[in-house]
Design goal:
By secondary structure, the protein is mainly α. It is built from eight helices and three strands.
Length: 205
């Protein structure tokens, strides 16, 4: 079977990527979905991310080059997005070796084993080693780069259509007529003071 066909089948029925951390704890990299994507955007829109993105994230670049640039953007943005980065990494991983059953079908021993794995997972991901941080980011981006690059190309085409049709421009405000302006103007309050009285006695010189 050709290599590209193998790759296509892997995208349809992907096998979870497994990564062993420096502490010998093993995690699985899950697939990115909407919430994880938004968390990645929060990282990229902090710190050095916006400045580096303005320098050019070429969605039409060779896949390897695109993935390398995206890894760099993500890592450079993390220092000013610490909480977002940890939340993103935690949501993109899970402990390896979990017993895959419905909760109601788990035995007591299996449930306790899963709970123990998740407890250790929380400890590992709370403050990971720097080398683990780098390995996790590289593994996640390598897995998701094809979809992210395809999404970027689609967004670029959509924005190009908006620019071509002028939909990216703010429509001019309609000029208000004299009658509309008059109707919006606050009405002058009617004076309630009475005229000065001229009655009463007068003095003569």
């Amino acid at each position: 079977m050709p290599a590209d066909t193998d790759s296509e089948l892997d995208r349809i029925d992907p096998q979870p990527a497994v990564l062993k951390l420096s502490t010998d704890f093993t995690v699985e990299i899950v697939r990115m979905r909407t919430r994880q994507f938004f968390r990645l955007l929060r990282i990229l829109t902090h710190g050095a991310g916006p400045a580096l993105m303005q320098s050019g994230l070429d969605f039409s670049a060779e896949p390897g080059e695109f993935a390398t640039k995206l890894v760099t953007l993500t890592l450079m943005s993390i220092p000013d997005a610490e909480s977002e980065a940890i939340l993103f990494l935690t949501s993109m991983c899970r402990p390896a070796g979990l017993v895959e059953k419905q909760d109601s079908a788990l035995s007591r021993q299996e449930r306790e084993a899963n709970d123990a794995l998740y407890q250790q997972f929380g400890q590992e991901m709370h403050n990971p080693e720097l080398e683990d941080l780098l390995d996790l980011i590289e593994a996640i981006i390598a897995q998701e780069a094809p979809e992210l690059q395809a999404l970027g190309k689609k967004l670029q085409k959509t924005f190009a259509v908006f620019q071509k049709t002028g939909q990216d421009k703010q429509p001019p405000e309609p000029e208000a007529s004299v009658q509309e302006i008059s109707s919006r103007a606050p009405s002058r309050k009617r004076s309630t003071s009475s005229a000065t009285s001229t009655g009463g006695p007068t003095t003569t010189s």
